[in-house]
Amino acid sequence: MTAPKITQLDVDELFDRVLHTEDDTLKLVRDLSYAAGMPDIGVSVQQGKLLQLLVQMSGAKRVLEIGTLGGYSTICLARGTYGEVVSLEYDEQYAKVARSNIKLAKLDQRVNIITGDAGYTMVLLTGSFDFVFIDADKENNALYVDYVINRLSHSGTVIVVDNVVRSGRVFAVPDKLSFIKGLGKRDDIETSAIQTAGRKGWDGFVLLRVK
Ligand code: SAH
Ligand code: DHB
Ligand code: MG
C-alpha cells in the first residue's frame, strides 16, 4: 500500500486549522467575494497574516495597495496598523464588493478604495507611504515599483510585490527587461526575492526596502 500523497494545499490547510489564522470576518469576506463571482486569486490565509505581521513589524502608519479584488488582503493590511490604507482597484464592481466587505470588518473609517487604472490613479496620490503591497496586473509591476520608489516613498518604505514567481517560473513580459533584472540594477533599494510553496502552488514574492 502506498502512503497517501500530501499536497502543498494539505499543509496550508493544516496550518490554517491549527493556528486558527482566519477569523469569522475574513472567512465571510472570502465567501462573499467568491459568491460575487470574483476569481479565487487573492492571498492565501497564511499570506494574509504575513502581510498583517509585516505591516505591524514595520510600524507602518500609511499603507498603499495596488489590486483590491474583494478586499481580503486590504483588511489584513489594515489590521496591521492604526493608520490609513489606500487601495487602488480597476474594476468598479469589485471595488463595490470590497467596500462592503471592509465595512463588515469595521475598517471603513481608515480604508479608502480608489477606482480606475492604477497607472493613472496612483499619480493622484500625494505624500509618502510606509508600506506598499503590489498585487494587480503583473505586466506593470516595474512601472508601479518605479513610481512608488521615485514619488511615493521615503527612506525605510517597505514594498511587497506578489507573484513574481508563478507556477515555478519567474514572471516576465516578453521583450521587456524583466522586472527582477530591473530591481537588480537599482542601488537605492535592498531586495530579497522569496519562492513560496502552498495553496498558490510554486509562487513567490519580492520584499524590498527603500534605502
Ligand atoms: N490583493 C487581492 C487580490 C488582487 S487580484 C487579495 O489578495 O485579496 C488583482 C486585482 O488587481 C484584481 O481585482 C484586478 O481587477 C486588479 N487590477 C488589475 N489591473 C489593474 C490596474 N491596472 N489598476 C488597478 N487594479 C488592477
Ligand atoms: C493571479 C493573480 C494573483 O494576484 C495571484 O496571487 C494569483 C493569480 C491571476 O491573475 O491569475
Ligand atoms: Mg497575488
Q: What's the Cα radius of gyration?
A: 17 Å
Helix-and-strand structural type: alpha/beta
**Share of helix, binned:** 25-40%
Cα-to-Cα separation, first versus last residue: 56 Å
Q: What is the count of DSSP helices, taking H or I runs of 4+ residues?
A: 8
SSE arrangement, N to C:
HHHEHEHEHEHEEHEE
Total beta strand runs: 8
Weakly predicted, low-confidence segments: none
Gross geometry: globular
**Quaternary state, please?**
single chain
Largest sheet: 8 strands, mixed
Strand coverage percent = 15-25%
Give the ligands present: S-adenosyl-L-homocysteine, 3,4-dihydroxybenzoic acid, magnesium ion
Mean pLDDT across all amino acids = 97
Overview in brief:
The chain has 211 residues and is α/β, with parallel strands linked by helices. The chain is built from eight helices and eight strands; from the N terminus they run H-H-H-E-H-E-H-E-H-E-H-E-E-H-E-E. Strands 1, 2, 3, 4, 5, 6, 7 and 8 form an eight-stranded mixed beta sheet that branches.
Task: Describe the protein in words.
The protein has helices spanning 8-19, 24-35, 45-58, 72-79, 92-104, 118-121, 141-151, 179-184, and strands at 62-66, 84-89, 111-115, 131-134, 158-166, 169-170, 189-196, 203-210. By secondary structure, it is of the alpha/beta class. The structure holds S-adenosyl-L-homocysteine, 3,4-dihydroxybenzoic acid and magnesium ion.
